[in-house]
Description:
Blueprint: H1 2-10, H2 14-32, E1 57-60, H3 67-80, E2 117-118, H4 126-132, E3 138-143, H5 146-156, H6 162-165, H7 173-179, H8 198-202, H9 214-226, E4 229-232, H10 236-247, H11 274-281, H12 283-303, H13 305-326, H14 362-372, H15 375-387
Parallel strand pairs: 1-2, 1-3, 3-4
Helix pairs in contact: 3-15
Amino acid sequence: MVLARLWRLAGPGRCRALLLAGLLLLLLQHVAKQEVGRTSHTEPPRGETSGHPPPNVVFVKTHKTGSSTLQNILFRVGERHHLTVAFPRYTYQFAYPQPFAAAFVEPLPPGAARYNLLLSHLRLAAGELRRVMPLDSLYLTILRDPIRTFPSVFAYYRSTVPAFRALANHPQPLAAFLQAPEQYYDPADAGNGLARNPMAFDLGLEASGEEGGSRWDRELERLNRTFQLVLIAEHFDESLLLARELLGLRLEELAYVRLNARRGGGDEALAPGLAWRIRTWNWLDVRLYRYFQAVLWRRVELYGYTRMKGELEALRALLRETRETCLAGEAAGPEETADELRPWQPDTAAILGYNLRPGLPPAQHASCYRLVLPELQYHARLYYQQYGREICVLPRD
């Protein structure tokens, strides 16, 4: 069924030819799989260096949670260490909103024995991910307070999620939706996955049935066993330091600027009563967020508050220095951003980007350029480096 869908989407021409070539390569890799471990190499396999190699990582990228910022950090780690990235076939997401399947992944490039990183949007299906990624892979994701997440999802996807479309031109669309959400929301429509409990949906949960009961305790415990770290957007720097220890990164590798933020997104004041409606409609996201917020603070306690305080000061000094060195100014709207550094723009929100300080020395320019490179451009860059061809993006059906 999965292969049939890929074939239908590919259509005639180049994308279908690439699909056939990819399937043939998968077959050849399956035949040769037993030989991989017995083959000697004069060069280390892709993803290994003469020093300690970074661990293999699966980052389940949730929607509108700050996930693009962490993805950029991991993209840079992957590029620096020549890691092999598991890319989606002919798109930038793994057939979202379908649950992840191994068939959604591009074949390994020549010379690679395994994937090291999987970082693109998907709907969690842990068993299928284990078919693709090494069994020692570390699993990360990020959550954000639903009070912030849901308005951002609504603004970004107002013209694409079926439940939101009817209100695309309403003067107060979010308030109108939350006044009577059942009027617009059809749970049987897979395209409505982000219309209710979007973070839970990304993590493979189905928010059907009662809010209470032991079922959700078990589901949250299962997710806690799946993920080695769940970052919390409201405590991003603390989360990032925990990730640094887990992944064995240097402090300098944590430098970041906030990516894929929308204009005005951080300054919104919710109308009275709207916060309650958001929490009520997204009750499972609220439960998910509170559970992993508590997990994060237990991990910070084990890390040590004094140690965390000192390292936060060092990280924030690094971030200030990085912004002063790299950026021409604050985040800018699409009309002010250079073409190559302009994030993809939905038709319902303005997404901010950055311009680089002019006159940077070549090496510094290259480092700063990667720091501010938007998701789709960085994805295409690494894809070309890995496969020697441009990504062939399928049309959406």
